[in-house]
Fold each of these.
Amino acid sequence: MAASQSFKFSNIKISTSLRFISISSNGHSFTVSYLINKCGFSTELASWASSYVHFETPEKPDSLFVFLENHGFSRTQILNLIKKRPRLLVCDTEKTLLPKIEYLHSLGFSRPELAKILSSYPTLLMHSLKNQIIPNFNLLRNLFHSDDKAIKAIKRFTPILVYDLESYLYPNMNVLRGIGVPESNILVLLNRQPRSLLYNPVRLKEIVEEAERMGFDPSTKMFLSVVIALKSMTKSTLEKKFDVYRRWGWSDQEIHEALRRHPLCMTVSEDKVMAIMDFLVKKMGYSSTLIAKQPSILRKSFRKNIIPRALFARELLSQGLVNDLKLSVLFDTSEKVFIRMFVDRFVNKAPELLKLYKEKLKISEKKQTLEVS
């Protein structure tokens, strides 16, 4: 008797579960099918998206495709946009999207630019034109006293149009003003690196104070380059990078001087620093402290720039064609200038030099391919 009741109870639970699954499946089956077949979603992604967007006929989502195509979006851009923001499939294109696109176009954004920007950051279309987009653009225009500069900042970091500028931009600008950064330099930073000023103001204050402790002058443009470099890492990460340089014999003063010469040298990964230093110091015989005076080298491509040029330079030295090669001349010149200075210059004395340099490049590229694979 107990077994019979248990069996009936189990049947009831199974039946209820199946009925729930059936209802759920039928309720979202069209949405899921549309997302898979029309939008290229995976089954899992379509199932997830159907929790946020639901439609039983294709009219509204189809209208989004037509609308975007009419405004210059490619199919790939449309699909990227939908995958990032599926809810756009059920929005009213004429009331919700058209005013924003028309406004942005009126500012000077071309149709192709808008298609690129909005497919990369469709969240912009989900925000209020009146309460966020227009006020933020007006604020940027007033700061720059220029529509063009405001537009360039937006192209570099589109989310600035919907950020809470009162909570981030203004406090961060005040932090920089408070330590003596000229207004002109702040605006250059806003134009070229707008993301840097949409940062936690408390953390930015710590960073600029660290830059001051290192001896950088807030009135110089170099100061902001240092701030950008320091902002890209935590305090512990920065200290680890300092330790890497110390391992190669750099004093703290040399580290700070290297940072002053080329702030972005601190953004280079520890592994890359070790590889470059090991190659130049141990294999090529350059002084570690000499590299500290030319830290821009650390930002060069190890495989495409440093290895082939260094090996080629060793050949020039061994053949007596040159007596000395400065690091700056060897690594900081463009490929065209390097060929002219070190290959074409000696082509009559050693016709095989160009072939030799190309071989060094091929060897380096082959090693890189093997490492990647």
Amino acid sequence: MKTVQLGFSDLFVTPICLGTMTFGEQVSEATAFDILDRSLARGINFVDTAEMYAVPPRRETFNATEIIIGNWLAARPGARQKLVIATKVAGPSRGMPWIRGGSPDLTGADIIAACDASLRRLQTDVIDLYQIHWPVRSVPMFGGLYYQPSETEGTPIHAQLEALGTLVRAGKVRAVGLSNETPYGVHEFVCLAEQHGLPRVATVQNGYSLLNRSVENALDESLHRLNVSLLAYSPLSFGLLTGKYDDSGLTGPDAPAAARLTKFESSRKQRWGRPEALAAAKRYSALARAYGLTPTQMALAFCYTQWRVASTIIGVTSVAQLDEDLAVWSTGLSAEVLQDIDKIRWEMRDPAI
């Protein structure tokens, strides 16, 4: 598996990234260690986490994932130098009072303090890719559809970049990125960085899957023209695209008890729990099977083979799931499959946007 360069940065990563948001909630520390060991042994050099994790977010598991990864790194001498580690600073609270006391802003001082705390939890001297988890601006994300021009202004983008620049100059961060961003946000971050000699964003981490192809509606052009790499998260749409909910639904008696959309009501209240999302997932499952593929194979192969995607973030709860997801790397999709995928999208659009 060849590595790819992230934007103009000096980071080269595998086109599959291990997502870790289940560590500390659905996944115990011992199982997380097994998954990390297996991922590294299989050649994956890219691990993504966040100060907010585990998910679903709650006070009791805030920071738990970074702590687990830090403990694993401490127990595996030599592993750190083989990895590109990405983490994220949470944006404004969004109803989570355990994040900076519920602050509606993310100041430059907050960014620097959060980075220092992540470094301690991860037990490392440098974060390879440091990302702003969601915008300080009030923009539609996590299932929202419409921008409201009456938004309350927070810390300006320039000030956020200055804080990131402080971290880069101090050697605490190698490259910076964004997450859950819009075309405007990407352009503004890049333009201000170039005007003021501040760190240029290398990546944008946004949701991208068969149920959410909104990246293709303008953001992909921005990323392509500005040479900013897309990190695609939730390629299986919280498990909807594995086919495991097709017959049972999300809450039926036969629903998989350990799966996140069955187990966590808070997850079902998000975009993944929409009836339209499940209906579309069933259509994609049927299409995959008609072509002799599993739903998981088709959904992951779609992301793995997209020119838009630099690296696809896969989240797993077991070594077996990890191996299954990695095995899809060699799977291609014919022109006929892609045409039929587009037909479903034209009819059902992006229900998990």
Amino acid sequence: MVQTSVPASRRVHEIDAVRGFALGGILIANIGFFADPGYAVGNGTLPISEGPVALVVSTLVLTKFYVIFSFLFGYSFTLQMRSWGEKVKPRMLRRCLALFVLGVLHGFLLWIGDILTLYATLGVLLLAMRNIRPRTAVKAGCWIIGVMSVIWLLLAGLVLLDPGSVTASASDAAAAARAEAMVTDGPLGFLRFQAETYPMIALLVWIGQGPMAMALFLFGLAAGKSRLLEEPERWAHLVPRILWVGYGVGLPAALFFTWSSQAGDAMQLAGLGINNVTSLLLAAAYVVTLLQLIRRVPAVGGALAPAGRVAASNYIGQSVLACLVFTGYGLALAGRLEPIAVMGVAVVIYVVLLALSAWWLRHHRQGPVEWALRRFTLLSGSRPEPPRPAGTA
């Protein structure tokens, strides 16, 4: 296939905008855990698990946006491959090491659901598979998703044969109350909660999201090698089909996922198995809708892209601001706000970070976390460079 020539260092505005959009969904998905820390040690119900807010968040947000973020990680790796050339192996290994260390610090100090350690580890696997053909990468990703879905469905069948109780126990309630008390008991209390909880949650994240993240890395790798987002005219004719399938199948399946998460162990496992596939369809529809909107209203892309360019700084920044609101680091409001108020806090945090990202990039080329990662990755001691015109890297 003949590919159009694209400068190796060129940033793709649309990728930055989609990444900035995904950050908003990740914030909404994560903030419920800050607002309701008992979820991490309780009976497994969703955070802020009752009422219309929970219905909307579980149906439209949960499991949808980390799919987009994982896909973009794989896609961005291909951009780095073009930029780094023969130095891609040592640089990617250093970058993954830096991400892993950052993730451990993030997990223990701020956010027990940190994803960076998982991304760093899977990034090493992606590096080893960097020469795989796009079609083979897609097939491998499909196999991973298919196998994981079958495993969830088989587990659902086993649970049906030997059903267990799904009611919350007194110990669950006591553990949840203890978690909330620790989180709001000043900085030391919160750190004690992090130290006790993060290792267990990290293991669950690796098991629950690891295979799917690797599949999306491979999809992103294939798309990046094919320059899919850089040449949207090649798939423009598929837009109506993507939207019809994404929303027509993805939305009903997302409603089933929400219902099944509260319906019992077997149905919850079945919902997870189905959601493994259908969350990708709905996430694809989100991305295509956003790209269509950006074409018609460029200001939308202009508002989102700065946050996407400094995504790592925003990811950490979300945790910092959420901690200042909900934990003993700050106002200690965990367990005190209604779900709609929690979503209001999420909107405020997101808008603040969008504005800060745009302001920062008027004075700097990279975000503070991105600068530190780049410095270690390239082993460069240079100072942060002045801003460049939009569209360059």
